[in-house]
Structures are given as structure tokens and as C-alpha cells.
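User: Can you predict the 3D structure for this chain?
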Amino acid sequence: MESLLIISVFLAVALAYGVYRQRRELAALGKTIEDRDAAIDQLRSQLDGDKREYQESESRFACVSDLSFDLVLLLDEDLRVIMANRRAFQLFGGIDPLGESLTMLLESSELLSLAQVALSENESLEEQFVIQGINYRARAQVIQQSQSRRYIGIGMQDITELVSLNRARRDLVANISHELRTPISRIRLIIEGLFLEADKPKRKASIQSLKEIAMETDALLWLAQELLDLSMIESGEAILRLVKTPLKQVVDDAIERLESQAAMKDLKIVSHVPQKVDVLCDADQLKRVLGNLLHNAIKWSPQGETITITATEQLDEVIVSIFDNGPGVPDELRHRVFERFYQADASRSGDEGTGLGLAICKHIVDAHGGRIWAEGNSQGIGGHFLFTLLRADASFQDDAPSAGGDQSPIAIAESAAPL
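Assistant: Here is the predicted structure, written as C-alpha cells:
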């Protein structure tokens, strides 16, 4: 009986000890789980922080790259796009390029070659090429992320406008060279003819030769003035001072200046500008406009024709018209003839001139607050250019100077307007 009791007590003690050990193990396991949960929470918090930092970094990169005027691409070693700014999306026609191979996105052997050569040679390269009709200057650079991972960064700049400007300037230099060479050669030949004649030159022939020299000298002066005007316009040095001015006086001065050129072709310049039409203008600059338009009309008018200048008042404007019987301007080129360096074959036979005269006219008229345009020759009406000027305010009519008196500037128009 006693032995049975001892065995029962022993089993109870063993069972209690086992329960105690299990409780201790469970407590230790719970503590371990709590520690692991805390570690997981800490890692999750760190991961969230890293993710936010990455997203912020990516957002900053995207913001900076999107503000750039250039296209920015980041490729992996398989030439797959892993990052692109907004301008680059436009290159791919609005298609999301991320994850796509550059070979599948664009048919540009030059860009692919640039990326491949940069990757193989592990250096920065620059190239210039055309994609979809747009001129780009591109630079590719390899970015070494680790020993086994490299990326290719590509920046592309649209230089179409720069290429066009360079081409226009090359054309300008070529035109100027041609324009200078022709009159200088003619002057030299005329002078040589005067001095190398066996007999004493006849007075009539000498006078004609001198007239031809004067005409070619005028052409050189005209070219020099166009270049000076262009230089002042581009530098912002040309200043307008709008003054109440009789339009007829300015027109008559411009006609007088070009009478000798018109006489060379037996042309007649007729003015139908009313006596009592006052405009707000800078007289010197307005003479440049009229001079360029009349010079153009003289250049392309047939021998013995008439050039007509008219002016009509309409509301607060005065419309000035210069009409000649030359070839005129084709309808489809009416707007382009005012572009700098542009020359239309139909209206500029022989590709003469610098292509600056009408562009300068537009700059000056725009600065006066007016408009300038050309009528098309679809009806066979010849050359017809028109521009508008502001009428002098009626409130200043009583203050107009008497005939022969000094012309005083209008106070409201005294401020200078840059050309």
C-alpha cells in the first residue's frame, strides 16, 4: 500500500515537473515569437522607409528629368527601357516604353548603334542624327552599378531649330557673297572700260558708265543697310519714337530717295496719299519700310511700268498700299515671304537678294502696332503689299503745328518702343 502511494506521489511530482517545463518552454517560445514579431515589424518599418525614400528619389528624378528640354532614357544591358522622362514618352508616340526593348520601340539604327558602342567600349559617346524628321544630338554614357550590373544613360536634345538657323545663316553668307561679287565685278569692268579705250571716251558713254557705277554702288549701300538693320533688330538697339507725322511727307521723301533707281528702268512712281493724313510713326523707320517695298517693286517691275502708292483711312488705322505690275507673290507663299532669309523663286527670279528686306519691314511695322501682308497674284494683279499704321489721335489735331513749323512729338507716344 505504501509502495503504491509512493509511486502515485512520484508520478504526480513528475507530471507537475513536466507541466512546469512545458510552461517554461511555452513562455520562452512566446518570448521568441514576440522578439521575432518585433524584428519583423522593425524590418517592415525599415522597408516602408526605404520604399518611401526610393519613391521620393524616383519622384525627384522624374521631376528634374521632366523639367529638362531633353529626352532622358535609362536602359539595361539588354537595351530595355527601365526609366524615361515625359519628353521621351513623346518620342515613342505616347506608348509606355518601360520594360520594352529599344529595338522594338524605334527604327533608328543610329540610336541603337550609339547605345551598343557605348556599352561595348564603356565610355561616353556623342552623335547627331535624325529620327522621325527631327534632328537630335544624343549622348550615351555607361553607368556602373556594380561589378555585374551596368546601365546606359541616354540624353537627346532637339536641335532642329538650330540646324535650320545654321542652314539659313549659311544661305545668307552665300547670298551676301553673291550680292557683293556681282556689283563689284560690274563696277570694275566699267572702270576698266573707261580707262582702256583706245580713243578718248565720249561724254555720253562716260555718263552712262557713271550712271551704271552709281546704280551698282546703290546696290552695295542697300545691302550694307539691310545687314545693319538686321544687326540692330537682333541686338534690340533699334528704338522707335512714335511721333505725329504727315504720311505724305514721309512717302514723298522715300520716293525721292529711289527716283534715280526707278529712272534706270524708266519706271514712274505715283503717290495717291492724301495731304491731310497724320499717323503715329517713327519717320526714319517708316522710310525704311517704304524704301524696302519700293525697292522690291522697282526690282521686279517690267520696263516702263508704273508703281502706285495709296493710303486710305479706316477706323483708327491708315492702310498704305504699294502696287506694281511685276510677277507678284504666289498665293501659297504670301505669309512665308516675310520670313527672315526666305526667298520665293516666283517672286525672286534668279535667287537675288538676301531675303531680309521684307522681314525687316515686318519687324518695323509690328513695332508700330500695325500689320503687313501681301496679296496673292492668283488674279494676275502683280505685286501688291499693304501695311497699317495708327492714325494720330483726334485729340491732338488742334495741337498740330502750322505748315512749315517744327513738328513736335505727341506726349503719349514719347516713350520709346524697342523694335
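The longest helix spans residues 2-67. The first strand starts at residue 71 and ends at 75.
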